[in-house]
Structure formats: C-alpha cells, structure tokens
What we know:
A hairpin with a 7-residue loop joins β3 (80-84) and β4. The chain is α+β, with helices and mostly antiparallel strands. It has a 4-stranded antiparallel beta sheet, with helices on one face. It has one domain. It is built from 2 helices and 4 strands, in the order βαβαββ.
Amino acid sequence: MYKVKITPIKRVVHHELIEKYENPIEHACDIKIGKEFISVNALCPEGFCKSAWESVYSFVKELAEGGGNFYDGWMKNPYSALISCNDGFRPVSFLLERIEEN
C-alpha cells in the first residue's frame, strides 16, 4: 500500500449559517491549515479529525491501494483528490496526495 499525505489547505466559515442554525460551541474545529498528516495503510492519522476522516476515507483508501484518476481526469495530478469535510458551517478542504514510496 502507498502512504497518502493529507493537507488541509482552506477553511471557509459561514457566519450567517452559524448565527442562524448552530448552537454555540466552544471547540468546533482545530485543524491547522497547512499541517500535513500521513495515512499509512489507509488508517486515520493520529490527531486527524474523526468527522473529516469520514469524508476523505474512501479517497484515501483508493489512493493507498494504487488507484486514482477520479472522475476521469478531475485532478491535474491523477493520484490526488481535493475533498472537503462535512461540516456545513466551517468546511475544510483537504488535498490528498499519494506518496510514491510504498
């Protein structure tokens, strides 16, 4: 299996949706933009958000198993994907990249 690098590259915060729909919470998301996580054997990296893992897992697994070229040429690098977590209030976009050493 290949290792897969997971890099949070952008977070968007929808303040108007938070004000209208979300109950106040103190600790919503602590993912740091630019921090790199490495998935080994398609397992969730230590310290990675469990909710975000649910969103990226199937792509990480496919890349780890040697697959790629999602949606027939969607990404410039066929061994990568750009996936957002499922937080509708403050989604984070993650760049997933297969690491060529296995």
